[in-house]
Amino acid sequence: MPHIIDSENVLGVNFREEIPQYTTMGSTDQYLYDPSLLNSLDFRKSPAILKPFITAADPGEPWMKVRPLRESDYDKGFLQLLSQLTAVGNVSRVDFLRTFAGMKARGDYFVTVIEDTRKQLIIGAATLVIEHKFIHDCGLKARLEDVVVNDTYRGKQLGKLITVTVTLLAQELGCYKMALECKDKLIPFYASLGYVLEPGNSNMMQIRYETVKKNNTNGAHNTNIS
């Protein structure tokens, strides 16, 4: 049975229909989501100060590419990049592809990466997760998670670039708000991108489980972008 997402028709993509398979021509190396969704993002809508001005379509260097996660990114250092953020564990290719397929089937995970095409290396990443709600007229709430930039690529505004990209994507997909959890020292960074602390509603609480079933973990958001 095709996976069905109950949301409105956005960006010409009817999410009530079967999710199409986005592949590279002549390859089975699938994108996690339709890469054309990134083409219409208007970075002028963001309060972020980008000097020089960069966008997902023009990230500032000809060898940089902003795009959805692909199956082949297992071999391009994606997991090694995440290890600069938090513990990743021993993720086999089978585990990676199984998780990738599950995210793709659900249709509400938008893992977005920046690639150094010279080295075929993933140097930045962020995840947009969409939650389906009964409140707000059965609206869509977005979460920002797992923002990370390779330590050796700092100073190129890549933290801003990847965060603004998925923030604008959430808006284009019809989400009524986007939320995140971060360390106190990163509050000024996110504030510069338009995020605000809500008075009386800015605490993060959690329970960590000692025993977790494999492939069923959802870690708290953290960020490594300085």
From TrEMBL:
- What would be the name of the gene that encodes this protein? Gnpnat
Q: Which parts of the sequence belong to the N-acetyltransferase domain?
A: 64-216
Question: Per the UniProt entry, what is one GO biological process?
Answer: UDP-N-acetylglucosamine biosynthetic process
Which key words tag this protein in UniProt? Answer: Acyltransferase, Transferase
Query: Which organism was this protein described from?
Result: Pseudolycoriella hygida
Entries under SUPFAM superfamilies matching the protein = Acyl-CoA N-acyltransferases (Nat)
Return the EC number.
2.3.1.4
Identify this protein by name.
Glucosamine 6-phosphate N-acetyltransferase
Enzyme superclass (EC):
transferase
Q: Which family does it belong to?
A: Belongs to the acetyltransferase family. GNA1 subfamily.
Task: List the catalysed reactions.
Answer: D-glucosamine 6-phosphate + acetyl-CoA = N-acetyl-D-glucosamine 6-phosphate + CoA + H(+)
GO molecular function terms listed in the Swiss-Prot or TrEMBL record = glucosamine 6-phosphate N-acetyltransferase activity
Recorded hits in PANTHER family, A to Z, give:
GLUCOSAMINE 6-PHOSPHATE N-ACETYLTRANSFERASE
- Pathway listed for it? Nucleotide-sugar biosynthesis; UDP-N-acetyl-alpha-D-glucosamine biosynthesis; N-acetyl-alpha-D-glucosamine 1-phosphate from alpha-D-glucosamine 6-phosphate (route I): step 1/2
